[in-house]
Structure formats: C-alpha cells, structure tokens
C-alpha cells in the first residue's frame, strides 16, 4: 500500500498524478485510508496543517502524486426568494458553528434535521442534494496572527 505523507504547495504539470475523491469528513483527517478508482488502496499520514481542499496535492516519499477532489455527498441545500433571507440563514447557521458552504444562490450544510427545521422556520427552502462539500474555512484559518501593526493601525498610532 502506498502511503502519502506530504502535502504539496506546488505541482509541476509535467508530473503524472492520479485523482482521488474524498468526502469532507475524510479531508479533515491527517490519517486515513482510501481506495482509488482503479481499486488500489492507499493510506495517508499527513502533517496536521489543516483540511485538504479540492485541488490539493499529496505525495509519497518516492514522488507518487494524488490530486484531491471534493467528493459529492449528501447535503442540505438552502435557497431563498430574496438574497437577504439567505444572508439571515447564513448568520444563524454561522452562530451554530456548523461547517457551511456558501454560493451566490445557495448555502450548503451537512444533514441535520434541527438545522433544517430552523432554516425552514426562517422561511427558506431546504432540499437534500448530492454535491461536493467545500465549506468556508473560517476567518482565522488562513491567516497568521502578527503582533506588528497593520498599515492602518500604524498610521493611526503615528498620528496620536
């Protein structure tokens, strides 16, 4: 079994790679087993540096490369007649800290009857669909805390 141990920041398009579709649940883990479309079993023992996003690349120590794709899975799709209603639903779902995928015309979350009832109670439409799940990573997920002053704060600091 090939074990993938590295996350690749860059991928040379001249290199050969295979694709693998993984659910959101699996893409959150640093260690997992999966099966390629050709039936070959693989393992992953990756650094714990966050979620594998669709389009991420992982490799073995010998240079075998996989492109990770978000697998279509059962989700709840929320739609509304008015954009503001969709915005309200995003606010209320966000307050419950559930993984939430946003699009211009819909919200998506993993099946949960309590959340479904809440959203319907807000007057929105909820439908179960099969869709790749790529939820928002959160405001702090891709940013590092920096103790230096931002340019705006630096200007404010200098003027006082």
Automatic annotation (TrEMBL):
InterPro entries given in the database record: UreE, UreE_C_dom, UreE_N, UreE_N_sf
Sample GO molecular function, one term: unfolded protein binding
SUPFAM superfamilies: Urease metallochaperone UreE, C-terminal domain (SSF69737), Urease metallochaperone UreE, N-terminal domain (SSF69287)
Pfam families according to UniProt: UreE_C, UreE_N
Coiled-coil region list: none
Chief place where the protein resides: cytoplasm
GO cellular component: cytoplasm
The keyword Calcium belongs to this UniProt entry's keyword annotation: no
GO BP, sorted A to Z: protein folding; protein-containing complex assembly; urea metabolic process
Keyword Cytoplasm: yes
Residue span, UreE urease accessory N-terminal domain: 2-66
Similarity comment text for this entry: Belongs to the UreE family.
Physiological role: Involved in urease metallocenter assembly. Binds nickel. Probably functions as a nickel donor during metallocenter assembly.
Protein name: Urease accessory protein UreE
Organism of this sequence: Acinetobacter pragensis
């Amino acid at each position: 079994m090939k074990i993938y141990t590295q996350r690749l920041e860059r991928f040379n398009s001249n290199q050969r790679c295979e694709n693998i579709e993984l659910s959101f649940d699996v893409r959150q883990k640093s260690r997992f087993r999966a099966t390629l479309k050709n039936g070959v079993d693989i393992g992953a023992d990756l650094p714990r540096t966050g979620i594998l996003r669709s389009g991420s690349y992982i490799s073995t120590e010998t240079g075998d490369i996989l492109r990770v794709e978000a697998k279509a899975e059962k989700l709840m799709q929320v739609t509304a007649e008015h954009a503001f209603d969709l915005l309200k639903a995003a606010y209320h779902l966000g307050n419950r800290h559930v993984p939430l995928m946003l699009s211009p015309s819909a919200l998506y979350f993993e099946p949960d009857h309590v959340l479904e009832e809440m959203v319907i109670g807000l007057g929105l439409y909820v439908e179960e669909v099969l869709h790749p799940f790529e939820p928002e990573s959160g405001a702090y997920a891709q940013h590092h805390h920096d103790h230096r002053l931002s340019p705006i704060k630096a200007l404010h600091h200098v003027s006082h």
